[in-house]
Amino acid sequence: MANKIQVTVWNEFWHEQHQDNIKAVYPEGIHRVIAAHLEQHQDMEVRTATLYDPEHGLTDEVIEKTDVLIWWSHLRNDLVPDALVDKLYKRVLAGMGTIFLHSASGSKLFKRLLGAAGGHKWREAHEKERLWVLKPGHPIVDGIGEYFELKEEEMYGEHWDIPEPDELVLASWFEGGEIFRSGITYTRGKGRMFYFRPGHEEYPTYYNANVLRIIENGVRWTKPQTASPVITSGNVPSIEPINGCLRDGRGNRIE
User: Fold this and answer.
1) Which residues contact 39 (CB under 8 A, 6 or more apart)?
2) What is the pLDDT of residues 149-180, one digit of tens each?
3) Which strands make up the sheet holding 191-196, listed edge to edge?
4) What are phi and psi of 229, to 5 degrees?
5) What is the reported pTM?
């Protein structure tokens, strides 16, 4: 199929290498489970990258080719170079889609794009999470019922100190009583962003059919929009005559 969506699944990949209980759940890493699902779809071409790959798996060539970047991170956000974050930030503004999963809300890129440090409640108590669809008919929740449940997850609770989302697609209720905005979207420049909350590394969340379907839908929704206009900035000539003639960016007359 021509014009496949170029997807890069990036994973910190620390837990799976250093904690046996996590490795037992994701022996090849969270990134490989997500990629294996996406690879089944003919409209996607998928690559994976981790913190421990050369150049963290995100060379200039990979970044330039990526239509949608999926990001999972947790404990090693500080090891992602600022220069790499700058490159990714510019690609988002130019139209690259991004999907941030679970604790990737603490990543440098997510906080840079939102302009906020965030901050919310959390608890690891193996509790049930019920995710409610708040925007039926939104492409991100295509094929998802009114709600679905995860038997065990880490709790994230409000208040979450972030800018008001463009759209609130999903919300979570937890067995301990808290709620959380679990599926939210933003637009930054020409790039679409989707944050999806579930995915603590201790639990087999990324084997759940609903979770994988939402990530798959998210890829198609965040992909670059081919009809988006060219955005210009900086010093520009006039469009209409000024004092009887067109002017260049410094106000000089254009003959």
Assistant:
1) 46
2) 999 999 999 999 999 999 999 999 999 999 99
3) 44-50, 5-11, 68-72, 97-101, 191-196, 179-188, 167-174, 121-133, 147-157
4) -75, 160
5) 0.93
